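Write out the 3D structure for:
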Amino acid sequence: MTNHKRKKSDRLTKQLASKIGARVNINSGAFHTDKGDLSLEDDYGESWKIEHKYTDAAHYTLKLSTFLKAEQEAKITGSHPVMVIEFTGGRSSLKRSLAVLDGSWSNEIQVSEELSTDKKSVRISPSLVSIKKPLKILFESDKRTLLLTTAIEWQQLLERDN
């Protein structure tokens, strides 16, 4: 990563941390005990490890392997994994942040559409989902399901009533 991209990534990660009340992990979680870009404990005592990605492009290629790595790192501390993908509005005219969660959260967030793929990745764009229109992504070859929603809807999940 070039110095310019690293500075932009650090700035956007700090902005996200400030917005959601998370703690920035030193050196993007390079230490064994503190993985992920951000750590968050919600009002219900649940811990989250957040992997933050950004793109200036009109799309982002979501690789199942990237989420599985974040999931493994979150398990070290007994945390829930989430990827936040930020479309910065560069080549895409739409600025939006999307959240990728394990498919088991579809019990908490009602899914309106499904997308199946036999590939190991899927190309997503900021217009693919909107509030109240989350998407369930089925990676058929791995029998894994991910949930793609807006970051706003994920934040509402953090504030849910038990």
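Residues 3-20 form the longest helix (18 residues).
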